[in-house]
Amino acid sequence: MALFSKKEKLSEADFQIVPEHLGIIMDGNGRWAKKRGLPRTAGHKVGAEVFRTICQECVNLGIKYVTFYAFSTENWKRPKSEVDAIMALFKDYLLEAKRDFVKAGNNRIIFIGEREGISQELLDLMDEAEAETASHTGTIVYLAVNYGGRQEIVSAVNKLIAQGKTEIDENDISENIYTVPECDLIIRPSGEQRLSNFLLWQAAYSEFWYSDVLWPDFKKEDLYSALREFEKRNRRFGG
Ligand code: FPP
């Protein structure tokens, strides 16, 4: 199934409200594989399939923005074979998307993160996916690849310094980070209850939802559980 499939198949679930911007930390691939005596890369492979399913469901639910944390600036510390396997999964996905651009739905893809370190071949495919979907007005799928929230803020400050600013305010930072909106809900499977450098600026008033399920086992029903819980949250934004 392609990311950009058309919107005709709407979700079987129905919600009064859904987050405008949903962030998802895809965690637990390694543990999922270890439990089965498989290499970690097997977990990432299944994780990539789950990404496709959940991404499509976010589209079906009419979520306006969804950000998937796919590879952090810290993930380069992993063995080269694992990093290469994850990059190969990105490539497969982008090649698949490329084959589908013509009959693509109305969804847009945007990468956030540092370009340095990513192969030129992958960068070209990423650029192509962004360009081909730039005019689409449906769900915006942000893929955080080589992404770090601290690095994002530091880079915004450096841009402001380069502009000659000596004093800045929150708007300055908001206007110079990646153009990702404030995040309403962050989902983290795998039992960990931390942000791990994800959307630090945009998560200031995010709700959080955690689950013990490992990402390769994550199902649409887990997404619905998170969204049902979100519907009940009383958001006060500090007021
Ligand atoms: C975290 O689990 C997962 C990653 C660092 C990689 C996530 C990548 C994918 C799901 C593939 C994405 C593919 C596409 C097409 C977007 P972990 O390895 O840290 O798991 P662990 O905590 O159990 O070791």
Question: What would you note in describing this structure?
Answer:
This protein has seven helices and six strands. With 239 residues, the chain is of the alpha/beta class. Mean pLDDT is 93; it is low at 1-9. It is globular and about 55 Å long. The chain binds farnesyl diphosphate. Residues 26-31, 44, 47-48, 51, 70-71, 75, 86, 89-90, 93, 143, 190 line the site of farnesyl diphosphate.
Largest sheet: 6 strands, parallel
* Helix and strand pattern: EHHEHEHEHHEEH
Determine the number of helices (DSSP H or I, runs of at least 4 residues): 7
Structural class: alpha/beta
Strand order of the largest sheet: 3-4-2-1-5-6
Q: What small molecules are bound in this structure? A: farnesyl diphosphate
- Radius of gyration in whole Å, from Cα? 18 Å
Q: Into which percentage range does the β-strand content fall?
A: 5-15%
Helix content: 40-55%
Q: Give the termini separation.
A: 43 Å
Overall average residue pLDDT = 93
Name the overall outline. Answer: globular
The poorly predicted ranges are 1-9
Number of strands: 6
Task: Give a brief rundown of this model.
The chain is an alpha/beta fold. 41% of the residues lie in helices and 14% in strands. The chain has a six-stranded parallel β-sheet, sandwiched between helices.
Characteristics:
14% strand, alpha/beta, disordered N terminus, 239 residues, six-stranded parallel beta sheet
List the helices and strands and how they pair.
Layout: E1 21-25, H1 29-35, H2 40-60, E2 65-72, H3 80-100, E3 108-112, H4 120-133, E4 140-147, H5 149-162, H6 170-176, E5 185-188, E6 207-210, H7 220-232
Parallel strand pairs: 1-2, 1-5, 2-4, 3-4, 5-6
This protein binds farnesyl diphosphate.
